[in-house]
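Subgroup meeting minutes
Present: P.N., E.W., G.H.
Scribe: E.W.

1. P.N. recapped why we're keeping a running log of single-chain structure predictions: easier to compare across weeks, and new members can see raw inputs and outputs side by side.
2. G.H. added today's entry (772 aa).
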Amino acid sequence: MDEEENPLVGANVVLAGMYLGSISDVDGRFSISGLSEGTYQLTVSFMGFETFKQEVHLTSDVQIHILLQRKSILADEVLVTATRASAQMPVAYTTVKKEHIERINMGQDIPYILQQSPSLVLTSDAGAGIGYSSFRIRGSDITRINVTVNGIPLNDSESHGTWWVDLPDFASSVENIQVQRGVGSSTNGAGAFGATVNFQTFDLKSEPNVELNFSGGSFNTYKTSVLLGTGIIKEKFVFDARASKIESDGYIDRAFSNLSSLSVSGAYYGEKNLLKLIYLSGKEQTYQAWDGVPSHVLDTNRTYNGMGQYIDSNGRIQYYENETDNYWQDHVQFFYTREITHHMQMNLALHYTYGRGFYEQYKQEQDLENYLMDPVIIGGDTVRTTDLIRQKWLDNHFYGMTYSLNFSKNRWNLLLGGALNRYLGDHFGRVIWAEIAPPGSFQHEWYRNDATKTDFNAYGKLTYTFSPNLTFYGDIQVRDIGYWLNGVDDDLRIIDQEHHFTFINPKLGVLYRFLERHHAFFSYAMGNREPNRYNFIDADPMESFPKHETLHDFEWGYGLQMQHMGLSINIFYMNYSNQLVLTGEINDVGSPIMTNARESYRRGVEISAEVKILPDLSWEANLALSQNKIHNFTEYVDDWDTWDQNSRYLGTTNISFSPGVVAGSSLQYEPIAGLHTSFNSKYVGSQFIDNTSSTERQLDPYFINDLIINYEIHTAFLDAIILKLMINNMFNVQYESNAWIYRYFYEGAEQYLDGYFPQAGIHFLAGITVQF
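Output recorded in log:
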């Protein structure tokens, strides 16, 4: 209850170090039974109230009357209320806490922080987790996963992708991460077709703090970061900052990364008001490695990187040293939250993101006319081709606002909100050097186009507790999108076009608790997703533009909590209409296009378990089994002899990069105080690399194991010294996590080009953290 003895519905009750817990009902009551005699640490948390802790000495049944005290200041957790799932919602989710993030954060990208999440498969272009990396959840890539930071959309408006390399060492500024599988409770930003990932940054630290992190390891990898915090000043103000530098040569040849980032946060905490300003900045330079390793080279040179390769005037193979990707990104977020009454809070956020950068390439024997450059006459000869260096630039602005109003009282929790966002993007290319070029062609620009996108949404979410055991959840979102493209693309095609979409996305579900330790839920959600930039500009102008995709997501869940064990089972059926897939079809200039598959689906089961084997030994494991199919699939293969395409109807096939089995395991042991060891394992079943279900084109299954050791020492002069050791892929497994293929017929025989992405064998990271 609160101080006025009003019951608090939905308070989270847990016993420390155990898997037992409870949620308070409409009368504020909870119960935990089946305990043996002993001493237990009881913790009760509820948004807007101080966390309650009490030691309970249990020799017989005990009744406890708990009065929660309201926090003297408004807490940061209200910033992510609109995007988070709670224990009362019928959603399959995993929350990664700060403690876990700190144990494994030694410079690797966000996908490696989330590696043990159910149904998640990660990949790294450089092969060791620093640089360009990504993940899939339930087979859906990052362009189909909704990502928010403090409720602000992070997905790129045009590509729908999220590039973790743009925010190096972002994990050091993150307090917690929630991964919701399926459509989840997504509100703002891109459509969630596989999952929703929400980040919360910079939680309140009441005491002054300084933290120094140093780590290094294989492939000349090192990370340095400094974190500073003032603690709370005059019971109102807090300032935090972080600066990081990361460098690595990468596992793949020349796939180096040179990364730096800065984060600053300032906040005013009042009893009923919270104002917060956050600045996140990242700068990256990475040598390009996105072509992968050709299959015929894998057995002899797994680290081969052909990017930047050229033949010099003496016929020798050389590599252009600046075949790099370069990008800078700045985020500014401003939040204002007010507690209108004890039962109602208002959130308003303004945001602005500025991104700019280019990738540079050395290209041999290029036709001058393809760059709008005139032929050059030398000694009576007309030169029409040349070697050159080009840069492809992106300069974009993304800004807008999000807002929400949350009302919670007794049985009701109502959330109303929305967002209005606008994106402006310029795409252009420059030739910065040419071996032979007409006069005045320095920094010659050969294409430019711009994009404007508006994204408005409004939503309402309702959680209603019918009875002590039964909760209903309903959610409806209206999303309106306008997208305009103008100008000339890099292949000199005019891409002027305009698109408009209006989506209505309903969600509903019910959660039922029974026999104290059990709960079950059912939910249905509809998601709609507009095509991205490349789907539009690569579309065949002789055909209609691609249609939007629709997902009907059905989820059934069951959970069990016992004193030394927790179990959850989630069954899902995701039915797609007009899912965009690669079939091998090309447009009028030969570029691959994605076409709408009329019917496709994903269905499966996810099982997660936690077991306390001994007081100092625990095991967490998860298993995902799935089927991922496209109905009535027809493949297309280019014929270079006829400049046409051959087609073949294949019927029902498997969706690419969707393994039928994904499993994770984490065995954790704390033999002495301060020493934490974790033996993590990941199994990923075979994956097809196109949609034809051909066993000739698939990634082999792999099983890898990592060992992570943290040892925390407390001294009279320092808060803590933490020593870290990470042994990745400790059994030196050779495997590839991603690939691409292009097939064609030439001189009557089928040929192909491909690229595989090998991941590093056994490699190490070690570090030290000093906290003042």
